[in-house]
Specification:
The chain is an alpha/beta fold. Helices cover about 40% and strands about 15% of the residues. The chain folds into 5 domains: about 15-105 and about 115-200, Thrombin, subunit H; about 210-230 and about 240-350 and about 600-700, Rossmann fold (3-Layer(aba) Sandwich), CATH 3.40.50.300; about 370-400 and about 490-595; about 705-920, 3-Layer(aba) Sandwich (Rossmann fold), CATH 3.40.50.300; about 930-1070, YaeB-like fold (2-Layer Sandwich). This is Helicase ATP-binding domain-containing protein. Pfam families: AAA_11, AAA_12, DUF6469. Keywords: ATP-binding, Helicase, Hydrolase, Nucleotide-binding.
Length: about 1100
């Protein structure tokens, strides 16, 4: 449970107040702010005008997001409430602060909708788990929302601190009084954190805010950032630009970096630089190289991006440069900090970032800088133990058995485990690196012992303290002085044991300090002393283990000079002397702050204040706007074209900022905006895009290193006006990869899927199952070929529509790994979800299939650009060529281009894909009929499924589906003379039905199958074909029905019609019926019946009328 120590009430946040003021009716009114939101202009008359332009759109976007969440409230995470108590800050009527006790899930009982609270969560409180919107506003409990605030990192989520919009009436269950209590549930609706931070940035006190960059971006002079400062152009650069030569940059990348460095060294103007990075042009490489130069310049720089994924990408690339450039083990990493939500970042999957991740760093330093038992305590204790071990032993004997580092079981366990794991620290065992320092494996072991275990123990501290107290009392009552004397360590064992514990603690603390402390607080001279001390401590520990059984050992421990004795004693004495000298140096010269081990905020501020490079999302950068924080010099915003301009005001107003570098590509997708009102108002527009629109110069990275030239050709022509060149790597032989045989699977293909059918799911997103099945068939063949050729392949399946993404995921299932490190991986995502990603093979499903060329938001140029630029070696685009050409969109150009280049194919051109279209047809027929209208079970022959898969005309396919649907509902064509095929000699003539579908004929009969203990009439669809093929089919059916008994043929002919609706008949199988077919063919045809039944629809038929 989070406890509040501050009595001072914070003012209720403006945005939160607005949200609290909305009734449920207000939330459900999608036009609540329609007339209040104005279009955001491209130019502004003042800073005040600029900031205020975003406030109402921000409120509308918050409203739209809440409306969307409430509309799907049945899927929202929720948890039951056990108790509600007022907080110390509670003060009606406004400051309605509560602590909510929630029900903890039982072990092994995890729900898909289990709620894990986070600060900023907007929650509803309901007396039921909501299944519909009305459940949030019941007569017993009206609409009530709250926001989660002031959660500590150590909070386990059982107690949730909240600020409520209204008083919360709640009666807890009391078993003693037999009171059942109230039912209450917390339902998570949304999270307001980012929008609250934007609101704060738009309302900063002008007297305290840093408006230098804001003023710059409001200037109408588009030459800002284009011309170097005349006062600084002649000045010699302070940077060793030779560093840049080692990065392997092309001319455009190098020029962009040098321009940014020149900007940093200008202190006369505040500038905003734009770097334009189209897909595959090495944008991340360029940013990381720039940041490394700034790192070497000691330029305090914030690097941020819209998403955690983007932040991690550039941080990982920067860390490769930093790690390669380290000269003294990990000394210097303290100047780099990455912070954010570790769970959302999935930081556990990025071990290479552990040493710079803030929360990891804070945990380590909490142990090392503890005022009670940190590094200073161990250094001083070790000095005392070396200088006067006899005095320390005397104190040990005087102390009771409860002292720290005594013979307690816990310390025995810690010391014993570490000692056993590190009994030998020789180079051979990999414990000491080339510099004689502790290696990574050993650091992890020590970190586990000195950080993780204490953290876990602290959570159970109260119960442990109580039990320990009881044990100590019992021990005192039962023990006597003779027992104590018997358990006391000898002098030699005491010194060895204490030395080992302090050595292990210092082996953990010293590398942690020079790794995580900023170099401004850790001079290199001090770090060098630590390096030497570590090597001596390792030696000392080894010598303790090898000499403790020898005579005269006590003399060495007492500090008596033994240089004339055995060599091993001389080494031990020398090591002790050297260690003592270095320990005293650190004790006197290293001055570091101390902190409480269990209160983390001051440690975080210390780490952030001294860092040179800071990485976080643009939203999280608000945490740097705190009192006492060291000023920043520059901000680098990666993926700047995806960041809403309103959100960019958060980092751009941080204290000290003088220059901003924006890296992005306005030709790709902008930020997501929920509200259509806000979309029209340009709320999703980025600062990058607005400046480009105004004519601000952008430095182009003009060589792409990702796509095969055949893939890059179309997007380069359409989106970048042929300004992008192909890199030498993509033009080499290694890029001529073929993952499947056939021209259709070359580097670039458009595959026409004309027999598809677009439909909408329950959330009004569009899907096309024919394309989904073809995608699945391609993936199947890729996997098969990958296994055969032992070729590693990464596959991406992309569609603009969420419903299509889900359809592909459902068909593909979990057959393939999504781990890109595996030999074969498949990732299925929306276009928006794939921005920034790349794969070896990309398969795009365009989905749309209609006669009028309607393609909706598929026509968006930015979305098309992202989809078409994700592939390295092969890009295969699935779509209905006719629909796309008729759309008049960018996709018309693509289809025409594909035909001109000989890259246009039809799905029927490849036999392997026929199975995909066949599966799609069967699936379509299975799903086409509303269940409430089903009266007849329908069975499709193999010939029919093959024939309908070959039909390319979408309208014809739809007519067939509609006709089969009508037949299954009991409808029959009244024009009987036109429905029968007259074959007087054949057995099938009385059964065969022929219905017209445009120029084709649908052939069907009534047939009989066994189902449980009954015979059942079914519809058997034999084929869809031109009329001149019917005689041949009739002959085949004559053979089929010729094997039926007379009794079975009569059952096929039997009809029951009520009010012009035909109903299937059923008959019990009794003793009077011996067989259904001639005995010679009974077994063979029973097997045929089973095969036919296996091809039946998934929908079970209704019971027939008796």
């Amino acid at each position: 449970m989070s406890t509040t120590t501050k009595e001072k009430k914070k003012p209720i946040h403006g945005l939160v107040n607005l949200v609290f003021s909305w009734s449920l009716r207000d939330v459900l009114n999608k036009n609540l702010y329609k007339d209040k939101v104005k279009e955001i202009p491209e130019t502004f008359v003042s800073i005040d005008h600029y900031l205020k332009s975003y406030i109402t759109p921000l409120v509308e976007e918050t409203h739209a997001d809440l409306l969307s969440c409430i509309s799907t409230v049945s899927h929202a995470p929720s948890v039951e409430v056990l108790d509600v108590v007022t907080s110390r800050k509670f003060e009606a009527p406004k400051h309605l602060y509560y602590e909510v006790l929630t029900k903890r899930a039982k072990e092994g009982e995890k729900s898909k909708t289990e709620y894990k609270p986070e600060n900023g969560d907007l929650i509803a409180l309901s007396d039921v788990r909501p299944r519909r919107i009305d459940d949030l506003n019941r007569p017993e409990r009206s609409f009530l929302i709250a926001i989660v605030q002031d959660m500590d990192d150590e909070d386990d989520g059982v107690w949730i601190p909240i600020l409520s919009s209204n008083l919360i009436p709640f009666q807890r269950q009391d078993n003693e009084k037999g009171e059942q209590g109230d039912k209450l549930f917390v339902v998570c609706l949304s999270n307001l954190t980012t929008n609250i931070r934007i609101w704060n940035a738009l309302h900063l006190d002008p007297d305290k805010a840093n408006r230098k960059i804001i003023r710059t971006v409001l200037q109408s002079d588009v030459t800002n950032g284009e011309v170097d400062c005349t006062d600084c152009s002649d000045r010699e650069t302070k940077t060793d630009v030779s560093i840049i030569q080692s990065f392997g940059l092309d001319d455009a990348q190098r020029e962009a970096i040098l321009s940014c460095i020149a900007t940093r060294e200008c202190d006369h103007r505040n500038m905003v630089k734009l770097i334009w990075g189209p897909p595959g042009t090495g944008k991340t490489k360029t940013v990381a190289s720039l940041l490394y130069v700034l790192f070497k310049m000691k330029c305090r720089t914030l690097t941020c991006a819209p998403t955690n994924i983007a932040v991690l990408g550039v941080a990982k690339r920067l860390m490769q440069h930093v790690q390669d450039g380290l000269e003294y083990d990990t000394y210097g990493l303290g100047d780099v900090v990455l912070f954010g939500n570790g769970e959302r970042m999935k930081i556990g999957d990025h071990e290479d970032l552990f040493d710079v991740f803030l929360e990891y760093r804070v945990d380590v330093l909490a142990s090392c800088l503890s005022s009670k038992d940190g590094w200073k305590s161990s250094v001083r204790s070790m000095i005392c133990l070396i200088e006067d071990p006899k005095e320390q032993y005397r104190k040990y004997l005087e102390k009771d058995e409860n002292k720290e580092h005594d013979t307690s079981d816990d310390e025995e366990e810690v010391e014993g485990n570490i000692t056993n794991e590190q009994s030998s620290l020789s180079n051979k065992d990999g414990k000491i690196n080339a510099h004689g320092l502790v290696d990574k494996h050993t650091k992890n072991k020590l970190w586990s012992k000195f950080v993780l275990e204490p953290l876990k123990k602290n959570k159970k501290k109260a119960s442990k303290d109580k039990k320990s107290s009881q044990r100590r009392n019992n021990s005192r009552a039962e023990g006597d002085s003779s027992n104590k004397e018997a358990n006391a360590l000898t002098f030699e064992k005491f010194v060895i044991k204490e030395s080992k514990w302090f050595i292990n603690h210092l082996l953990f603390c010293l590398p942690s300090l020079y790794t995580h402390i900023p170099t401004s607080d850790m001079p290199l001279e001090t770090a060098n002393v630590m390096f030497r001390l570590l090597k001596n401590l390792q030696t000392l520990k080894t010598l303790f283990a090898t000499t403790e059984t020898f005579e005269r050992y006590k003399e060495v421990l007492l500090g008596i000079d033994t240089t004339n004795k055995a060599r091993r004693f001389a080494n031990l004495y020398e090591s002790k002397t050297e260690c003592l000298e270095m320990l005293k140096f650190l004790n006197e010269h290293l001055s570091l702050p101390t902190f409480s081990k269990y209160f983390k905020p001051p440690i975080r501020r210390f780490c952030l204040k001294g860092a040179c490079l800071i990485f976080c999302t643009a939203s999280s950068s608000s945490k740097l706007n705190t009192q006492g924080m060291s000023p920043l010099e520059m901000v680098v915003i990666d993926e700047a074209a995806q960041l809403k301009e309103s959100e960019s005001t958060i980092p751009l107003q941080l204290p000290g900022l003088r220059h901003a570098i924006l890296i992005g590509d306005e030709k790709q997708l902008p930020a997501m905006v929920q509200s259509k009102i806000c979309q029209k108002a340009e709320f999703g527009r980025s600062l990058f895009e607005r400046l480009v629109t105004l004519g601000h110069k952008k430095q182009l990275l003009n060589v792409q290193y990702r796509m095969h030239p055949k893939i890059s050709l179309f997007p380069n022509n359409e989106f970048y006006h042929k300004k992008i060149m192909d890199g030498p790597n993509v033009k080499g032989e290694k890029y001529e990869k073929r993952f499947l045989t056939g021209d259709i699977f070359g580097s670039y293909s458009f595959i026409n899927v004309s027999n598809g059918n677009e439909e909408q799911d329950e959330r009004h997103s569009t899907r096309n199952k024919a394309e989904a099945f073809v995608v699945a068939e391609i993936v199947f063949n890729l996997h098969k070929e990958s296994i055969s050729s032992k070729q590693k392949v990464r596959v991406g399946c992309i569609s603009p529509y969420k419903a299509q993404v889900f359809a592909i995921q459902q068909i593909v299932g979990k057959k393939y790994s999504t781990d890109i490190k595996s030999d074969f991986s498949v990732n299925v995502r929306s276009v928006d979800g794939f921005q920034g990603g790349e794969e070896d093979v990309i398969i795009i499903s365009t989905v749309r299939c209609n006669g009028n060329g309607s393609v909706g938001f598929l026509s968006n140029l930015q979305r098309a650009n992202v989809a078409l630029t994700r592939a390295r070696y092969c890009l295969w685009i699935l779509g209905n060529g006719t629909t796309l050409v008729n759309s008049g969109s960018i996709w018309k150009n693509l289809v025409i281009d594909a035909k001109a280049r000989g890259c246009y194919f039809d799905v029927t051109d490849d036999k392997r894909l026929n199975q995909g279209t066949l599966n799609a047809t069967i699936e379509s027929l299975n799903d086409m009929r509303p269940k409430q209208n089903i009266k007849w079970k329908v069975i499709f022959s193999e010939n029919f499924t093959k024939s309908i898969a070959r039909i390319k005309d979408a309208e014809t396919s739809k007519e067939v589906n509609t006709l089969v649907e009508k037949l299954s509902s009991g409808w029959r064509n009244s024009e009987k003379n036109n429905n029968r095929f007259n074959n007087k000699r054949g057995n099938s003539s009385v059964l065969l039905e022929v219905y017209n579908v445009k120029h084709l004929k649908l052939i069907w009969t009534i047939d009989i199958v066994k189902q449980n203990s009954r015979y059942l009439q079914v519809l058997k669809i034999w084929d869809i074909l031109p009329g001149y093929y019917i005689p041949k089919l009739a002959k085949d059916l004559d053979i089929h029905f010729g094997q039926y008994t007379v009794d079975m043929m009569n059952r096929c002919k039997y009809k029951r019609v009520e009010r012009n609706i035909a109903f299937p008949m059923t008959w019990l199988i009794d003793g009077s019926v011996i067989s259904t077919r001639s005995s010679a063919n009974r077994d063979r045809n029973d097997n045929l019946s089973r095969q036919l039944e296996a091809m039946s629809l998934r929908d079970e038929p209704r019971s027939s009328r008796q």
